[in-house]
Amino acid sequence: MAQSGKRVLISAPGKVILFGEHAVVHKKLAVAASLGLRTYLHLEENETGQCRLHLPDVDIDLTWLLSDLSLSIDLKTLETGHPMDIPEEIKQQLENWMGVTTREAQRQAVLAFLYLFFVLKTDKPTSFGFSINTRSTLPVGAGLGSSASFATCIATALLVLFNHIPTGFAQSEKKDSYLDTINRYAYKAEQVIHGNPSGLDNSVCVFGGALSFRRGEGFVPLEGFQSLQLLLTNTKVPRSTSALVAGVTAKKEKYPNVIDPILDSIDKISLRCCEAFKSDSKADLAQELEDLVDINHCLLHALGVSHSSLEKVRTITGEYGVKTKLTGAGGGGCALSIIRDDVNVETTNSVAQKLAGEGFDCYRTSLGGTGVNAVILIDDSLDQAWLINADRETLEAHAI
Amino acid sequence: MAQSGKRVLISAPGKVILFGEHAVVHKKLAVAASLGLRTYLHLEENETGQCRLHLPDVDIDLTWLLSDLSLSIDLKTLETGHPMDIPEEIKQQLENWMGVTTREAQRQAVLAFLYLFFVLKTDKPTSFGFSINTRSTLPVGAGLGSSASFATCIATALLVLFNHIPTGFAQSEKKDSYLDTINRYAYKAEQVIHGNPSGLDNSVCVFGGALSFRRGEGFVPLEGFQSLQLLLTNTKVPRSTSALVAGVTAKKEKYPNVIDPILDSIDKISLRCCEAFKSDSKADLAQELEDLVDINHCLLHALGVSHSSLEKVRTITGEYGVKTKLTGAGGGGCALSIIRDDVNVETTNSVAQKLAGEGFDCYRTSLGGTGVNAVILIDDSLDQAWLINADRETLEAHAI
């Protein structure tokens, strides 16, 4: 049973697709890596008999009486299928607890939490209560894995809370097995949120580092992967991932002989990236990644998924010799720029300022953040208010 | 023998590469077409015993006594090899007549003229003289075939002057044979100017219309080719074609698995273009050409031969829904934009104004101009001064 007063800071990184977005839909190799930007979850066990879910990033603050949270069917018995292949009456019962959340992102987040709660809960005393607070340094809906990072934190929190895995899972000898468990439930949460995600995002958020991925063949960690400095630029231009994916498919159907070799080229870019990390020279690695970033962006542009905002980011960074590609679905969203070790801070600041001047949000971060982690909080001052107010450096210092 | 007082207006179109530049070096298919923009040559036979070569576009105005123009070896006997594989002493004699021309473009133009003069001249009375004036509406050195167009006009003028072909060659039953002759000598002039040209440029200038070309396989006229409106933008950014070609080759050597499929894709774009012209619907044709223009540019950008000026042209035209690609070597130079039939004049004017505001030169013209042509001038007022001063519309009206 849970020890009384458990207080844990859980965190999981966001992810970025380095190479292969869109091509991955057509069975080409993609490479994704975790980010220094993370989602933080403050879990506190208490004796209120209540459950509080506080997600300030998406304006959610819901509290339920735990004695009220029951379903007519035990969800554990339905765990094997797709989370949303549950009877309509159960869906209706879940909906009833979702309160006045109206935005789709809110509904999905709450639904994912409730689903995992019912799948993972174990018997507890009547007084048992808990609160979950999350905060993310990741922009929401920008293709940087904010939902997978959230899903990973929520799954970890509920697995720890209901004693399926120990709080110190990341330091355990059975770490690999615990991470697999977390990944399985994080994927379920992603399925609630996205329908049919590839599983790439949650895998990166759980395991950290970098992974290559081909549909139907699963994930392979990148051998020799090493951290790199990045500048991420969120154009904040909204876009529909499904429409962009459909656009590429339509182009491939109209011009198969033209588009197929472009997708092949992207496949080889991902492959070359995997090989480049095995190289001994960091300068060579950076040079090759820059070349590949530049070529991959142009090929994505050829597929029709760039956007004037992304081209503007490329123009501005290009003036400083910094190579940039769109990352994720494109059509707006985020761009990633490789910051070589020999680029000085003044240059990076100038680029970031110029991008900010165009109304874009810039994030200086690194590639290859640690996977999901949990730290037992001892200092009483590290409470929920602290989580909400702490700056990124403070959070990073406490979480990893 | 030449009839006394022969006065002829000869003209030949410029050319634009529609698809396949750079890839053509690696044996991929390219498509080129003639332009509405032309080079005009005013040929006048007189009794001065002199030869005047007036090329105001490259600041050349040279006059020789024809009795002075003789070589120690008859160049006709050396006609089969490369024009510049002639003995050093002959080269030196040619050099001696070139006057104070110092710029390379000037030297090449005069050398090409002198070479063809010696290869094509026939016996004439002592009083025989002639003058050649040329003027081009094509920008020089912008990849629009200004040299091939000049070479075609000069070859035609000397062939007509020395009665190797009739002035009315273009209306003759033996037109095909005459055009082949012109093309053979135009290619020689191009060899003098460029060393080892592919022969694509002069072929387009001589035959007009559109041709597909694969190195080692020669030229095929495009079936069903039809004229299209174009906007050509000269960024006026100077570049080295050979350095750009070498850059692509280096990239292909460093990343063969990535670059080869990009070149394959470009090959298929050219092929698709050839197929598209066979289509019955002009709307479908324009749509496909726009798609292909957009994709081909992005692939050229991936090969590293775009330039910020070209991207700016694409940004500006893109704001008006007009599709643009670089044409020729890239790295600056010219961009071509497809102007669909349903684009109104105001839009095209706005685009052109905005481009001019950035310091670019814009040319509204059509694709698929008539090949080389010659018109006997009857009106005495259509003299050399007229040629120099006439506007483009007047020249076009008299030349074709």
TrEMBL record, chains A, B:
Subcellular location: Cytoplasm
Record-annotated GHMP kinase N-terminal domain positions: 124-209
Pathway entry: Isoprenoid biosynthesis; isopentenyl diphosphate biosynthesis via mevalonate pathway; isopentenyl diphosphate from (R)-mevalonate: step 1/3
Gene Ontology biological process: ergosterol biosynthetic process; isopentenyl diphosphate biosynthetic process, mevalonate pathway
Gene Ontology molecular function terms on file: ATP binding; metal ion binding; mevalonate kinase activity
UniProt keyword list: ATP-binding, Cytoplasm, Kinase, Lipid biosynthesis, Lipid metabolism, Magnesium, Metal-binding, Nucleotide-binding, Ribonucleoprotein, Ribosomal protein, Steroid biosynthesis, Steroid metabolism, Sterol biosynthesis, Sterol metabolism, Transferase
Cellular component per GO, a single term: ribosome
InterPro entries reported for this sequence: GHMP_kinase_C_dom, GHMP_kinase_C_sf, GHMP_kinase_N_dom, GHMP_knse_ATP-bd_CS, Mev_gal_kin, Ribosomal_Su5_D2-typ_SF, Ribsml_uS5_D2-typ_fold_subgr
Domain (GHMP kinase C-terminal): residue spans on this chain: 286-344
EC number, as in UniProt: 2.7.1.36
PROSITE patterns (UniProt xref): GHMP_KINASES_ATP
Keyword hit for Ribonucleoprotein: yes
Enzyme class: transferase
Catalysed conversion reaction: (R)-mevalonate + ATP = (R)-5-phosphomevalonate + ADP + H(+)
Main function: Mevalonate kinase; part of the second module of ergosterol biosynthesis pathway that includes the middle steps of the pathway. The second module is carried out in the vacuole and involves the formation of farnesyl diphosphate, which is also an important intermediate in the biosynthesis of ubiquinone, dolichol, heme and prenylated proteins.
Family: Belongs to the GHMP kinase family. Mevalonate kinase subfamily.
Protein's UniProt name: Mevalonate kinase
